Amino acid sequence: MSQPISTTIPALVHEHSKLDRVAAVFDSENISYTFSQLTNEMEMLAAGLLSSGLEPGDRVLICGSNNAQFFTSTLACARGGLIFSLINPNFANASQLHYALKKGEFRAIICFPANKEAEFLNNLLNEIAPELKHSAKGHLSSKALPKLTHIIMAEEDHKHAGTFTLSEIFGRSNRERIEKLPNFEDWSTHQLAAIQFTTGTSAPAKLVGLSHYQLINGCRVAAEAIGVDTTVLFYRIYILYTSQLIFSLLLMHGALCCALPLFKIPVFALVALAPFVSGTRVLFPSPSPLPKFLFESIKKHQCAQLLTNAVALRLVLKIALARKIELPSVKTVILIGERVPLDLLKSIAKQFQNANKIFNGYMLTEVASVPIITSEETSVVKNVGKPLRGFTVCFKVTYAPFITLPQQLNRTVLNRI
């Protein structure tokens, strides 16, 4: 196992800034970013955000999923010293959005399209803060949300009073403002990078703080466990006009196809940071977590690894069987999020004929990673209480306050070593 990476997200991105190889592909948007382009996008958007009046340390709520600019917005926030938080844009109602914004004390919100309707988030924001209709951009003053000043809409066709569009933020960037960005070389790897709401399944949702170190090494540990840094080597021989033979080594990494939403912070840490941690090319077939053209994307980009969950994969396999689709490039299937039934494991082996590695992992927001991963049908039992190297499980005793006599309850706490 490799040593922990003690750096920050912007420093990690800059380490790869000279590479002209593709790092991320957003297939439905026809967008591909090389490492160099991602660095430039990060710098430009970070400078634009700070020039709009935001300051390092401000909190930014990013509502969206697997869009290209959702991806770059997170990197830009990290570059500008802004603390980002990722969330599903499909709120049930305005009160849910209000709770998130108020609880997190966010100064800015970046809104990407939701699945429900056009201008869905803008309508919710106007319901929560009617002052928005009469506010100058970057100067919202709301009784309901006193901390919130900046509304940024990624829906470029819809411009409203009091809101920036993302292109306007990009337009505020220039070379001088980029040069004035905070010096990330002075930052600690343990500096706060993100705050994230927990899922709220076993207890009320709470906010947890995540450092650059946690996000980067959460990716490193999980990526090594499932082998997303597997490298295929190709040799090319070039004959120059001098008749001298020169052998050059071309590294091509098997692509990792992501069919899970990036607003889940363990997914973001694993997939969005994988290009910089392990050199892996990542593919997002569409903004939807269950992509309509998943098979086409996997075939076109010859993906070696598929990241999804059991519910989605069961549906995918039914469609593949009905349409007689084969995906020979897939060597590894990674299922995270819930328990995988035995019959599903067997059907994977039948329909992904070359998939010789099948992993099942459990996400934990508090460590921004997938700290428990199993790879065999019988290893689920063997690995109970055994997290990946780099994590340790502690058992703490708590007491039930609603019982007269103290009753001890075991509570598992998963900490990073």
From TrEMBL:
By its UniProt entry, which InterPro entries does this protein fall under? AMP-dep_synth/lig_dom (IPR000873), ANL_N_sf (IPR042099)
Entry's Gene Ontology BP terms: fatty acid metabolic process
Q: Which GO terms describe its molecular function?
A: medium-chain fatty acid-CoA ligase activity
- One Pfam annotation reads AMP-binding
Q: Where is the AMP-dependent synthetase/ligase domain?
A: 19-392
Instruction: Tell me the protein's name.
Output: AMP-binding domain-containing protein
Its ancestry begins with: Eukaryota, Metazoa, Ecdysozoa, Nematoda, Chromadorea
